[in-house]
Design goal:
- The protein is of the alpha/beta class and 696 residues long.
- Among the domains are: 1-133, Rossmann fold (3-Layer(aba) Sandwich); 317-436, Rossmann fold, CATH 3.40.50.261; 499-575, ATP-grasp fold, A domain (Dna Ligase, domain 1, 2-Layer Sandwich), CATH 3.30.1490.20; 581-693, D-amino Acid Aminotransferase, Chain A, domain 1 (2-Layer Sandwich).
- It is built from 23 helices and 28 strands.
- Strands 8-10-9-11-12-13 form a six-stranded mixed β-sheet, sandwiched between helices. Strands 23, 24, 25, 26, 27 and 28 form a six-stranded antiparallel β-sheet that branches. It has a five-stranded parallel β-sheet with strand order 2-1-5-6-7, with helices on one face.
- Strand 1 (14-18), helix 2 (30-38) and strand 2 (43-47) form a beta-alpha-beta unit.
- The radius of gyration is 31 Å and the shape is flat.
């Protein structure tokens, strides 16, 4: 997918300002003042019928009288006049418009109807429309500032880094810019999308993914629409090795179906968004500070696919703190080789050379020890990310320059590593460390988080895209099926069930149990009772014919008592399987990303433990097995405590089959729950299944 249609919007050669003001502090005046200050080389054409000149520029009465066709129009007039401006710009041949004007979809139905008219007009003229109700954008590379934020009264973008900011919120986007500028982190491009009537966040991410001005992308999102563009943009960024770090706020709403589906109730906690972002290597930041830290580290453009952390420290306590954070993140801290540890003990017998490598306060007496320990960490340890904790020593006027010289010499010997230091120092001293190639953090835990994220980017960049997964057509019944019918449908899709049979009366149940072999499981069979265990509708360990007859009567009585209006088809009699690991497979139809599959530990504890993994459908068995192995409970499948190993390949095959079925079944398939899926040493079988459908 090509996103170059935003070029006239972000890289224009000419701009018309509809509603231009001679006052540089007003909304229609700030953009002109900013662009004159920053030296925008293109044409600026103010439009205001009440003025002949605006801020020293010739002013035009209307769009029709402009001396040429503007690449982009900036609209800063209210209400109906804004719609007229879109029509006039479109008629002139303009290819893009930025609309400051508010009072559209954000204020109610009447405003939404007017916004629809804006989009219709822009689309009819082949014009891209940013906004309405947006703060604007800037591209400092060309001095282009169609934006009315007051942020620039405190300073302009710096040029240390090439981070693009894409934000649905104008205030947050410029807040992020201001914080980055104050940290001297370069953000040459920022685009805020407002109501996203036409240009959405995905368009902007896609443009940044292919733009020469941007190496790293920061994004702020409240909700995702036009998921096809959004996902295409993330994949383009991944292929182009451009890290995306995002703050996604709010929680996804899966609608009323969450009450009927275990999977949906778990997915509703934002897990689907997490899974989709992780699929494309996007790192999701928890707060603004983390967003900037990760983006700042990414500007070094070193993304180790096999990331490991080596630490050299003058404080054992800091080493423990760093280790704790790394362990929480799953950031590997392998020990130094034994020979290297022994050599370091030769320098300082009382050092702690394992990793973190504590050179102790002896380094103050022998500054060269800092270099020796850092060289051993990088050279012998081979760590991809190297962190030095030197605290206030790094900012000391007497010792700091010597320590920096020692570490800088080693960093130059290993330029393919990520080097970071945790120091307390004045800003000018921090800049000196940065000039020598170091990422600088006061808090070492922030450094660990930022370094870990670079490895996540590297893993995503090195990942080979999976081949397309085909999904054959599926014919669904007219209504939500019973358990027996659901299992039949899933079995045809590649998810086998335990041996079982539907029985209309007690004697049929006895005959089936005799054939299957005792003990058996008996369940109420009804398309209207989806969660049978909640009303006592499941009987385990039914051991003989008399117990089957009694069990049938018990199930019918409980159905009549707890669900008197339900359609009852009888009872399901199934073989009772022992020695299996209980897993769960699930499917939800996310309103943004479509069908999403889930795998997790099953049984009655799934909603308590929530040890689950999600993935957009469809995907192959290799990806399914990766999801299974990512679970905290995977050791239960892998022979923990002497148990026989479960058939992980069969589980992965069933999960992949579910993902194909989800796509093939189409939008009428609302949810699937297979819980438990019994995973044996050989094979995996559905013991219970719910397939929920919408009415045709």
């Amino acid at each position: 997918m090509d996103f170059s249609s935003l070029d006239p919007l972000i890289r224009p050669r000419s701009l018309a300002i509809i509603g231009a003001s001679d006052d540089p502090t007003r909304i229609g005046g700030r953009p002109i003042a900013y662009m004159k200050t920053r030296g925008f080389a293109g044409e600026l054409w103010p439009v205001n019928p009440k003025r002949a000149e605006v801020q020293g520029l010739r002013c035009f009465a209307d769009v029709a009288s402009l001396p040429g066709v503007p690449d982009v129009g900036l609209i800063a007039v209210p209400g109906a006049a804004a719609l007229e401006a879109v029509e006039a710009l479109g008629a002139k041949g303009c290819k893009a418009a930025i609309m400051f004007t508010a009072g559209f979809a954000e204020v109610g139905a009447e405003g939404a109807a007017m916004q629809d008219r804006l989009v219709e007009a822009a689309t009819r003229h082949g014009m891209r429309l940013l906004g309405p109700n947006c703060l604007g954008l800037f591209n400092d590379a060309i001095g282009f500032y169609p934006i009315f934020s007051s942020s620039f009264e405190q300073g302009w973008p710096v040029h240390n880094g090439r981070i693009g900011i894409a934000s649905q919120s104008g205030a947050y986007g410029t807040h992020l810019y201001s914080l980055a500028r104050n940290r001297e982190i370069g953000t040459p491009v920022c685009v805020t999308t407002g109501n996203e009537a036409e240009v959405a966040l995905g368009d902007v991410l896609g443009w940044m993914a292919q733009a020469d001005e941007v190496d790293v992308i920061c994004a702020y999102a409240e909700g995702i629409r036009e998921s096809e563009k959004f996902l295409a943009a993330l994949e383009l960024a991944r292929r182009n090795r451009k890290p995306v770090v995002m703050m996604k706020v709010g929680r996804s709403e899966l609608g009323a179906h969450a009450a009927q589906s275990h999977t949906a109730s778990i997915a509703g906690n934002d897990a689907v968004t997490d899974a989709v972002l992780a699929e494309f290597g996007v790192v999701r930041a928890r707060n603004t500070e983390e967003l900037l830290d990760i983006a700042y580290a990414a500007t070094h453009r070193i993304y180790p696919a096999a990331n490991t952390l080596g630490v050299v420290t003058v404080s054992g306590g800091a080493g423990v703190l760093i280790s704790d954070v790394a362990d929480t993140l799953g950031f590997a801290l392998p020990p130094m080789p034994e020979a290297a540890q022994e050599r370091l003990r030769g320098f300082v017998p009382f050092c702690a050379p394992r990793n973190p490598v504590d050179c102790t306060a002896q380094a103050f007496n022998q500054i060269e020890l800092v270099g020796e320990f850092a060289r051993a960490m990088a050279g012998d340890g081979g760590y991809a990310s190297c962190l030095g904790f030197v605290t206030q020593v790094g900012g000391s006027p007497t010792v700091g320059p010597k320590v920096r010289a020692q570490m800088a010499k080693v960093a130059k010997e290993f330029p393919d590593r990520l080097w970071a230091v945790s120091i307390i120092a004045p800003p000018e001293v921090q800049r000196e460390w940065e000039a020598d190639g170091f990422l600088v953090f006061e808090d070492p835990t922030r450094a660990v988080v930022a370094l870990h994220a670079q490895g996540r980017f590297g893993e995503a960049f090195s990942r080979v895209a999976s081949p397309p997964v085909s999904a054959p057509q599926v014919t669904l019944p007219a209504t939500t099926p019973s358990e027996a019918e659901a299992k039949r449908i899933l079995a045809e899709a590649g998810i086998p069930a335990v041996p079982e049979e539907a029985c209309a009366d007690a004697e049929a149940a006895v005959a089936v149990a005799r054939r299957i072999g005792f003990p058996v499981v008996m369940k109420i069979l009804s398309p209207d009772i989806l969660h049978k265990s909640e009303i006592g509708g499941v009987l385990l360990g039914v051991a003989d014919e008399a117990a089957v007859r009694q069990g049938f009567a018990t199930l019918m009585a409980r159905a009549a008592e707890h669900a008197p209006g339900a359609r009852i088809e009888g009872a399901l009699v199934a073989k009772q399987v022992t020695g299996a690991v209980e897993m769960a497979l699930g499917l939800v139809r996310d309103p943004v990303f479509g069908p999403v599959a889930m795998v997790g530990l099953g049984g009655v504890f799934i909603e308590v433990l929530k040890d689950v993994a999600f993935r957009r459908c469809p995907f192959d068995a290799a990806e399914a097995e990766r999801l299974v192995r990512s679970l905290k409970g995977f050791p239960l499948l892998d022979g923990a405590r002497g148990r026989p190993k479960a058939d992980v390949a069969a589980l992965a095959a069933a999960l992949a089959a579910l993902s194909r079925f989800a796509v093939a079944a189409g939008p009428r398939l609302l949810s699937v729950d297979v819980n438990p899926l019994l995973v044996l040493p050989e094979g995996a079988f559905a013991a219970d299944a719910v397939v929920e459908l919408s009415t045709p």
